[in-house]
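>> received
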Amino acid sequence: MSTIRGEYVFIIDRSGSMSGSRIEMAKNALLLFLRSLPVNSKFNVVGFGSSHELYSKSSVDYTFDNLQDAEIKISKMDANLGGTNILAPLKAVMAIEKKDKYPRNIFLLTDGSVGNTHQVLSHI
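>> returned
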């Protein structure tokens, strides 16, 4: 049986429009996704608004310790990063060096109130 491997990057909207129940639902979904990753995977989390924050400069191995660390950081996330500029975090994710044999999968968790949709679509 072949081993399923992948790099999973989760981009979570932390802009002001995500305040209240929206950020809580996104965090819960993110935690569910992380806990469901295949063994031998790598992952990263990027929070964005007017600025963005990477969990790690490069994706990390999916281990118990890394998962616990990510869970702690996710629990402290809030909708406190201002506006909704998704282009910069997308560029940051694309700049992360790809690992051989780990196909990159990018997931976006947002309420859809993105301010620069045209620029994003032009970039990808």
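>> The beta strands are 7-13, 42-48, 52-54, 60-61, 104-109.
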